TrEMBL record:
Single GO biological process annotation from the record: protein processing
Organism from which the protein derives: Caenispirillum salinarum AK4
Keywords: Aspartyl protease, Hydrolase, Protease
Domain of life of the source: Bacteria
NCBIfam families membership: hydrog_prot
Name of the protein: Hydrogenase maturation protease
UniProt cross-references to SUPFAM superfamilies, sorted A to Z: HybD-like
Length: 163
């Protein structure tokens, strides 16, 4: 385990890969998570993105990183990093591709209102292009997955000692 990781709550950092494996680029969070699972002193959890379930997963964790697909208008394969800070509301445009009416953005805002956010919550996302049922990942997203996993890994090693 990374020295100091999870010491506040006695739990290691949590990485949540969000997505649906059968909806094109929506699977990016799950696929990036698979590149990190078993590769370090952190806890990896795949999740379909339903908001209340996300709150339950992260509720007692000091450090949480969420990996997801985004739809913000950037070029497919572009990487995004957003640190959720107290009081900074999310505009939600980049995370509206959820198949749930209550997804990542809503989970963050509800968790904030209920005092159920982790001490530090960071969203890593890749800009998607293909969302159809039964479609594979787009070439741009598939090519970006190693860089996405590396960005998450860098944050984990940089931040873990703070917890």
């Amino acid at each position: 385990m990374v020295e100091g990781a999870g010491s506040k709550a006695g739990l290691p950092p949590l990485i949540i890969g969000v997505g649906q494996p059968w909806r094109g680029d929506d699977a990016a969070g799950l696929d990036a998570l698979a590149l990190l699972d078993g590769g370090g002193p952190w806890d990896c959890r795949p999740h379909h993105g339903e908001g209340l379930g996300l709150i339950a997963l992260w509720e007692d964790r000091p450090l949480v990183l969420v990996i997801d697909a985004a739809l913000s208008g950037a070029a497919p394969g572009a990487l995004h990093r957003l640190e959720v800070a107290d009081g900074a509301a999310l505009d939600g445009a980049g995370f509206r591709c959820s198949s749930h009416a209550f997804g990542v953005r809503e989970a963050i805002e509800t968790g904030r209102a209920l005092g159920k956010l982790p001490d530090r919550l960071i969203i890593h996302a890749v800009e998607g292009a293909r969302w159809g049922l039964g479609e594979p990942l787009s070439d741009a997203v598939a090519a970006a997955l190693p860089a996405l996993a590396d960005a998450v890994r860098r944050d984990l090693y940089r931040l873990a000692d703070a917890f």
